[in-house]
Structures are given as structure tokens and as C-alpha cells.
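User: My advisor asked me to double-check a structure prediction for UvrABC system protein C before group meeting. I don't want to rely on an old file, so could you generate it fresh from this sequence?
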Amino acid sequence: MPQFDAKQFLAHCARKPGVYRMLDDDGGVLYVGKARDLRARLNSYFQKNVTGAKTRALVSRIAGVETTVTASEAEALLLEQSLIKSLRPPYNILLRDDKSYPYIKITTSDEYPRITFHRGKRGPGSRYFGPYPSAGSVRETLALVEKVFRVRNCRDSFFRNRTRPCLQYQIERCTAPCVDFVSREAYAEQVRMAMDFLSGRSRQVSDHLTEQMEKAAEQLDFERAAELRDQLAAIQAVQQKQNVETDRGGDVDAVAIAVRHGLAVVEVLMVRQGRVLGHRSFRPDTRGEEDSDEILEAFLAQYYLGERDDQSIPREIVLPGALPGQAALQEAMETHLGRRIRLAARVRGQRQAWLNMARTNADQSLHADLAAREHLEQRFHALETLLEADTPIRRIECFDISHTQGERAVASCVVFDQQGARKADYRRFNVSPEHGGDDYEALEEAVRRRYQRVVKEEAKLPDLLLIDGGKGQMQRSFEVIQSLHLDNQVLVMGIGKGPSRRPGLEVLYLPDGRELVPGGAHAALHLLQQVRDEAHRFAITGHRARRGKARRSGLEDIPGVGPKRRKALLNHFGGLKQLRNASREELARVEGINAQTAETLYNWFHE
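Assistant: Sure, here is a fresh prediction for UvrABC system protein C from the sequence you gave:
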């Protein structure tokens, strides 16, 4: 491909809003950007006084530039975010964590509504409360609501098939509506108060309970008055604990950023109905040259213009200061959401307090990240010294195998660099060695599949391939690497537990015959132990999931019972135990199960 002629390209470039895509020799997209004036923005890349090393590296790889003219800068911003999300260009600031926020869901269409954890799309027939910043904060709130209001959390299949109260009733976390221990009206009142509480109207709930308690005392129903007193005390304790609650309601996100030494942390503090629900930290992938405004603008665009539930976005977003592209961003968000949004950069009072809280958390998170990075860099350097490596070790991939007596073997591959675990690069492999339980065969299969694909896709190779195992496992893996002609690029090493199998006395096996015992105090061994333990955890988790999936229903081998019938049976009875105890007549009542299939099922479980 001929060298890119920037001067000629700029001479014919439009001076209008739009999006540009910088391409490499193979036509791959290196970078996507938007501009109010395409020619002026692109011209800035091709000046002689460009200072940033990574920007110079980007420009040196440009083989072509494509542009798309838009009607406005806001429209360009929307197109830019769509392209970044689909293309994931290597030189863009990328938001790695796009997991949706969790909610609390109450199934209001049910006769006896259920309260539960929810993540994903929201459907009709239920009310949703949140969003919450983490699953932990949802579970904490759920535990409180169940304790105070005793609303059921069980699945419908479990609820329909109860003949006596479950443990939740025994520990006073449910009123047992499944066996009619509570009237529909009384249960509905508890659900209504729970929804008021979750909506931030805890004072109204307290006033209502106080009124009911006094009325019960006047009627000499002291047992009921005592129950209401305890319920009221629990709610008042929560009100005292929630010291950031304010009389001023409103849904607000307070966003702060901390940038230092090439790392960035963006903190989003979530306030709903005037109550702080918690905060969430984000660590965008940057080039290390952008200032805080540039990173924050990119974050806000990806975070609020991405594929999120639009209802989870509040009407007001508090920022630490005015941003250069704030007007275009606000216009793009309003176009995307179809409603008004306020980006507030100058706030006072309670909103300033929320912003300060977000700033404090961002600073603390960044400080912890910098300390961890420095610690990891020291460990990587110690590993290079220990192995007398000719080239720097910047990326480690580690494999481990997990199975139960050869059943459902799973191989894990975890990835670490000087930033820590790269979980987006983790991989699992369902392996099927010819001889069940043969770790050597399983490991060889996983390593071959992994690096055949890496070579085919020209993806990033590790500097060190770490094998959780002894000399035999290391040698088999090294032979695979040799067969793929990667032995000059990838260093292979095994980590075994040593003769005594005591932590700290691990032996490192290398293909050249060296056996190293660094000792329990060596920083390099600490790094290798961390990587190995993570590979072990990831392998066990995958194996348990695979084994559990195979064993979950125990119905896979029954003749005439396919996926739909298995699902219908489990939904009807609520679990395998209830299904095993069912009679022929009860089995035949399930939708899709005729008398012949019911007979087959009954005989299968009772032979």
C-alpha cells in the first residue's frame, strides 16, 4: 500500500462536523474520533510538534483515513460511540466494564408478590427499584426488606408446591403465604410498605407503623403492637445508619475522575430519591497521554450512550467541572434518550457534598491502583532476574486442569500483566482426553487449541507460559509450543509443589533442564503463586459449572424427555427431589406429559 499522503488528504477534507476512522495497512481501524471541524481536527495529528509518544506511534501506522460528515457535532458523537463499541479500536479510550446495573424487582402482578434480585431487561407486571451500584448492595437491601417486611423471595415453582412453611418462615423472614398463614390483605399491606421503603419514603412508612402500633395498643392487642414496635425500630435503625439521606429528593449521578501516572479512575456515585445507594469505580483503558477532561468526556459518552437501560439514567449528572464538549454531549444524550438531561458542572449544597464523596472515592481507588501496580512491577522484575530472561516479561498466561475422576474436564487459561489480572482475556476449554483423567492429554489439547487460534488471529502472545504441574506437564506443553514454531517467542515453565508439597517450596521447571527453588520469601514466587492460584480457581469454577449443568436435572438420559419436557417438569415441581417423589398421576398433570411418559418417568426414578 502506498504511503499515506496527509497533505493531499487534508486539502480535500470537509470543514464540517463528522466522524473519522484511521486505518492501518490491512484496513483495520486504529482509532475512531469525532470533530466539529474534520479538517482542523485531523490536521492536528500531522503536525511536526506532536508531543505524545503514543500519538506519534498512532500517526506512524496510519495508512488511510475515512470520514463521515454528519449534520451536527451531537450526531457525530452518537455515531462515534456506535463505531467504538462495534470496532473496539486499539488507540481509543475504552470502557471495559459495561455490565448492567442490578435492581430489586417486586412481581406486583402476582397474587402474593415476590421480591428478588434482577439484572437485565425490565418487563411488565413488576416494579423495579434501583439501580444499585453492585450485587452486594442489592443483597444487603434484600436481606433488610425480608427481615422487616417479611415478603417472600422464593421461586414460583417452589411457592406453588409447598405443603408446609419453609425455613424462611421459621427464621421470621417470610409470613408463609404459600400455606395461607397470612391473609391476602395483610400481605398486600406489607408489600406496599416495602415498596414505599425502597422508593425512599421510609419516613412515611415509619409514620404509618407508629399509627398502627398506637391503634393496636388502644385495642389491647399488645402482641400485634409489639410486632409493629420491632418493625418500626428496625426501620428507624436504617434511617439513622443512612446518614447521607436528605429531605431533598431526586435522582442524581455524581461523577468524579482521578488521573495520575498513566492510570485513570472514574467514580460514579448513585443517588436515588435523595438516598446514596453506593458508588462504582471504572478504569478506562487509556493511552496514558490524555488529560482528565478528555478521558471523562470519552467515559461519559460510552457509559451513557451505550446499550444500557435508559430508565436507569437519572435526569441530572453532576460533573467536577465544565467539559469542552459538554453541550454536544448533552444534546447527544437527549437525542439518544428522548428526554431532557442536565449536565451540571457548578453545584452547591448537597450536590457538592455528593461530588466531594465521589472525588474522595476516586482518589482512594487510584492510590490503591498505583500501589498495586508498583508492587506488581517489582514482582515482574524479580521474575525476569530469577529466570535470567533475555527479553522483558510483560504478559503471563497460565493453564490448569480441573475434573472429578476424569468427568467433565475443564482447562483454564488466565492472563496477567503488570496491571494485574486481565479477566477479559481469560479462556476456558472443555477438554475430552482419550483416557479420562489424563491431565497430560487434557493440557496438551487446551494449549494447542489456545495457541493455534492465537497464531491464526495474530493475537498477542504471552512472554511466559506457566503450567500448573511438574516436569511432565511442562514438557508436553513445550512440545506443543515447538510444533507451532513459537518456542523462540514464548518461554515455557512449570510450577510444581515440590517433594514436601508445602507452600513456599515450589519447584520451577524449565525446558533447558533447570529446576529452580526460589524460596517462600522471593517476590517472583509470590507472583507465580498468585497467577497459579487464579488459574486453579478459574478451572474449578468452570468444572463445577460444567459438571453441575450435566447433573442438574438428572433427566438427560430418560427416553422421550427432551429439553422442553425437562423444563416443564422442573418448573412444575420446583426441583429434582420433588420430582422423584411425585406419583404417576402428579407427573401426568404436567403440561406435555402424557400417561405413557409419566409411567416411564415413574419407573425411571423407582427402579
